[in-house]
Amino acid sequence: MEPCSYTISQAHDLLKKRKLSAEELLRSCIKRVENVDQSLNCVVHRNFDSALTEAKKLDTSGNFDSPLSGIPYLAKDVFCEKGVPTTACSNILRDKDYLPPFDSTTTKRLKTAGAISFGKVNTDEFTCGGSTESSCFGVTKCPWNLERVSGGSSGGSAAAVSADECLFALGTDTGGSIRQPAGYCGCTGIKVTYGRTSRFGVMSYASSLDTIGTLAKTVEDAALILQTMAGKDPLDGTTSSVPVPDYFSSLHTSIKGLKIGLPKEYFIEGADPEVIASVRAAAKIFESLGATVTDISLPHTTYGVATYYVIAPCELSSNMARYDGVRYGHTVPHPENLLDYYERVRSEGFGAEVKRRIMIGTYALSAGYFDQYYRKAQKVRTLVKKDFEDALQKVDVILTPTAPTPAFKIGAHTDNPVQAYLEDAFTIPASLAGLPGLALPCGFSSGNLPIGIQLIGPQFREDLLFGVGHAFQQETDWHSRKPKL
Amino acid sequence: MVSLDPAAVRHIGKLARLRLTDEEVEKFAPELTSILQYIDKLSEVNTDNVEPTSQVTGLNNVFREDILRGEETSPDALLQTSPLPIIDHQIASPPAHG
After folding, report:
1. Which residue out of A192, A362, A381 would a mutagenesis test of the B interface target, given it has the greatest number of B Cβ atoms within 10 Å?
2. Which of left, alpha, beta for A411 (phi over 0: left; psi -120 to 50: alpha)?
3. What total number of domains does chain A contain?
4. Is the CB of A341 less than 8 angstroms away from the CB of B95?
5. Is residue A404 part of a domain?
6. What is d(CA A386, CA A380) in angstroms, rounded to the nearest whole number?
7. Fold held by B6-44
8. What is the mean pLDDT of each run of 10 residues along chain A (485 residues)?
9. Domain residues of chain B, as ranges?
10. What is the ipTM of this complex?
11. Host domain of residue A64
12. Which of A65, A184, A357, B39 has a 20 to 30 A CA-CA distance from A287?
């Protein structure tokens, strides 16, 4: 077994006993990237040399007390790290590679804990998409089938973890961007409660929905990583002061008597029958562990996608206003005047999907339309949130598929944006309600594509989801299966 | 039923500071129309007496001390990321009126 395929817990054990060096572990990941990434296209910026320097420093110090010390990871290309190219996979920042002069809170905390960032991974441009097809670096392919997408927007993160290019990867989730690719690639992904982790230094998409999370090989690893990431940050006013529990100790709680709800709106016609069967089989496993499973209803589910595609583009159009060629990014020569400069920079810099969403948002926020679109969507958001609050009075956690189908074919939705948006129908509602969601593998389709489940819990109950997810991974081995590359 | 014609798409492009080519306008008009028509689904929902959600965990008026930290980076480091010339610690942006 190559060190790159270890879980964090396995690697930590060996590092601590000095049976493995941080340098060996990192070199193993780098070798894996060099061997397989040409076909997958996960890594868009390589930071190998400075990472190796960090690893050697750690080996000299010999301090591997922190569970993340010496653990190599890859960050989605929206996490700012001082002096490391960070481009949101957009030509507007790639032209003259943006080198952030500061660190995101998340990468800073991980660095303090000894984790080693060695590159940036692919995402849809500014995280706008569900397939990485809108990245200026091209699509990241699903490690299980190279004709299919890895999902998105954190597709580079999910594929890199699943292909053992790293021990874990950072992602962001606004409407499903961690959970959906985790499902498509067969890894574990945690989307946190809004405000559980700091957004400082991560390029914004939709500020009332954006969350920072991680993709990992097991629930146990995800819990270890989140322990370091979570908590109040003075640099992000929307982070919560709700205390962060000890996630590691919550892994070992019994799920006997746990009440699990299956929302009928997620088990509909149009969802792949193999996905439905696989998720129902997962429910049976929870029952065999002592949980009770009941049918519930989340009646406003059908309005989730429409609500999201008002709120997110509106907030995006506002957030994208900063990319005007003045403070950073792409530039054009000989502008006639400032307006000409803005228009040319932005037209050349942004790709089609970001332009579409900026225009939807601009239209919906333009004079006379605010009440009809943004305010209306915010009201429906309240109803979606209330659905979950009512349901979570009756059950402890909600179990759903991560997506209606396994990974789709590259190019399948190129000409139909609405169809592409519907791929996120099962992840968007929890995002609108600000709830945590844990995605983990629960089986494979007849075409050997991973299928994922999503566990949704009350706000700030990531600990509960980790306990339930860990119990599932103690009983099943879907998370240990590896793609042949 | 909402429908965007090419003139409307150009107008939105102008508001969004995007200069669209004729091909883009042709492509975006039906695509944006289909997205807006899908969004129209929200008009089915009765939202009388429903409060809008703008902050989902219930935070309200988060304050902090107004003190300069200056730990993250420096003003000059921030200026260095600009693609435009820096003159006397200011970015020389193109003139507003040519």
Report:
1. A362
2. left
3. 1
4. no
5. yes
6. 10
7. Histone, subunit A (1.10.20)
8. 97 98 98 98 97 98 96 98 97 90 98 98 98 98 98 97 98 98 98 98 98 98 98 96 97 95 92 96 98 98 97 98 95 96 97 97 95 97 98 98 97 89 94 98 98 98 98 98 96
9. 6-44
10. 0.97
11. 3-261+393-480
12. A184
